[in-house]
Amino acid sequence: MKIIVTGAGGFIAQNILKHLSYLKNIKIKAFLKKKTNVYKSKNINYKIKKIENIKKKDLQGYQAIFHYASTGARNFYKNKSFFNEFKNTYETNVIHTLNLFELASQVGIKRLVVPGSCFEYGLSAKKNKKLSIKSNLLPKGYYSMSKASLYFHLRNFYKKNKKLNIIYLRYFQVFGEGEKLPRLWAQLKYNAKNNKNFVVENGSLVRDFVDVDLVSSKTIKIFKNNKRGFVLKNIGSGKGVSVSKFSKFWWKKFGGKKKLIIKNYKTPHISYLVSKN
Q1: Contact at 8 Å (CB) between 109 and 88?
Q2: Which of 3, 87, 97 is nearest to 52 (CA)?
Q3: CB 210 within 8 A of CB 174
Q4: Which of 38, 88, 145, 274 could bridge 240 with an S-S bond, Cβ 3.0-4.6 Å?
Q5: pLDDT in tens, the chain (277 residues)
């Protein structure tokens, strides 16, 4: 099978690529936005090209796309230049993505794997209320709005072509090897290993933390087992853990000797995000 992977330099995409490369008779073309250090395998061919520049000829002969190209996730509540950030996020996550999928359908690609986000549930998330795929989407912030918008567009895209197989996966709080600074797990590891103090700003937030290796293996399993229709799933552990408890566990695991300081600053972030499995 021949597979396209976009956003191939990203944290989750790199782990997905590793798991895909283990499969037999797989050939992968992986698109990068820019040159970066990547996982290498003899069945992965990397190309530097933004998704808006991908043409039909780049897609011909392939059977599936794992679409991990996106933007706006890091600072989606900060709005010093709100309009520009919103515009860039929506163009990449919705417009360029839909254009890519239209090209893919024109060359006969029928299988699409698309990562969503638990933040699409937004204001539906309440204390001790786990989120199912039937929960309302009430996104807060332009990144999660763009993801929710893409989801609804994909439902319509599928209605127009029922021969497609679209797998839409809402990932919860993914962490693990390959994660980059300044994300929480990576920052905990860096500060602990470098004998530095670390301040956790929002210790009371509760998240459904799920290891990227498990996320990747689940994604591949769902892809292998669901070859028809529109498939929607949450990818989480189903367990809520406070940021404080998570940080203390990994600080000890990483052998942190300096101070781990837990704060509970006022934050616009959703306080409780846990999947109902």
Answers
A1: no
A2: 97
A3: yes
A4: 274
A5: 999 999 999 999 999 999 999 999 999 999 999 999 999 999 999 999 999 999 999 999 999 999 999 998 765 555 556 667 788 899 999 999 999 999 999 999 999 999 999 999 999 998 879 999 999 999 988 899 999 999 999 999 999 999 999 999 999 999 999 999 999 999 999 999 999 999 999 999 999 999 999 999 999 999 999 999 999 999 999 999 999 999 999 999 999 999 999 998 888 889 999 999 7
